[in-house]
Amino acid sequence: MAKNSCKITFECMRVDISRNWLRSELFYDADLTTGPDEFISPGFGRLRDLMEGQEPGADPEAIERELDRYSTFPMYPTAFLLAANVVLELTGETTDVQTNFQESSKSGGGSFGYGPFRISASYSQSDSSASAQCDATADGCRITIKSPQIIGWVSQMVPALPRLRNQATPT
After folding, report:
1. Distance separating alpha carbons of residues 110 and 105, to the nearest angstrom
2. What CA dihedral angle connects 160, 166, 169 and 171, to 10 degrees?
3. What is the largest CA-CA distance in the chain?
4. I need a labelling partner for 61 at 20 to 30 A (CA). Which of 68, 109, 136, 154 fits?
5. Mind listing the pLDDT tens digit for each residue in 8-17?
6. Omega before 60 within 30 of 0, i.e. cis
C-alpha cells in the first residue's frame, strides 16, 4: 500500500460529554492534596511537553517513565469526534487489500486500520448488515464503512497534582 494513494471522505461531528457531577473547579482548589506517592498530573505545560516529546536531548525512556508516573488522571475527555459515512478510495495495486478484506469476511472476521479509521470485516448472512464493504473500481478499490467510528478525543488537562511546590524532583 505504500505506493497507493488514498482519498478519504466522511462526515464528522463533535459530541460533547456532559458530566454534571464532575466539578472541574475542584482540581484548582489550593487545599486539594493527594495521597503519598500519588501523582495525578505534572501540569499543563509539562504534560504537553511530555506528550509531544519535543524536549531537546531528552531520553525517550525517561519521558516514558515520567508519563507512566502521571498516568492516574492527567486529563479527562470532554468530547469526542465521530465519523460516519466513511469512504476510502484506494488507487493503485489493491489486490492484497481486496483479498484480505474478502478472506476476513469469509473466515468470520478481521480488521485493519488506516489513519484513525478501523475497518472490520465479518461474516454475515446478509450483505446489508455488514459494517463495511470493499468494492473493486477501475483503478483500485473503494471501502465503505457504514458504522460510525470515534476518530479523536478532546480532553481537558488537569493542573499539577500534587502541587508543584510540594513536588519532589523525579528520579
Report:
1. 7
2. -90
3. 66
4. 154
5. 999 999 999 9
6. no
